[in-house]
Amino acid sequence: MRAMKFDFILHWLWALVFSILALSGIAMAGAKYGWVMQYDIATADVVHRLAAVVYVLLTLIVIIYEIIRILRRDKTKKPWLVFGPSGYGLFTFITTLTFIITGAIIWLFMDSNHAATAFTLWIHEKLTYLAVASVIWHIYMKTHALKWPKKKAQRGR
Length: 157
Known about the structure:
The protein is an all-alpha fold and 157 residues long. It is 67% helix and 0% strand.
């Protein structure tokens, strides 16, 4: 049995934590989505903040992992990387940094700077909808990985 690769584990940890953040965040977006966590906004807030801490730690781990790969001049293709230099990996990196910055502003200034909080909440919420839509697109585009591989016809027979 092959050992699981580090990038594979990071990818699925990332997906799990993002899912928790998305569900708890959407539950706090208003009465329209409160049913996601049975209208328990206080619990949604705690779950969201705890998951956010894990999300930031995972982000740091991924960035350090990428820096180490760059320093080692590792050019091997890693299909499970969370971030990448172009395409969906770059989009993920930009949205992640934006989520972390806006989330930190919301968390730190919720009770003191209402204008900054309102603006960053708006950005954070709209980015959530964009990110969730992009995850659905990402899953659709990767469904080819779920198909059972066909056996290649043997030549010379």
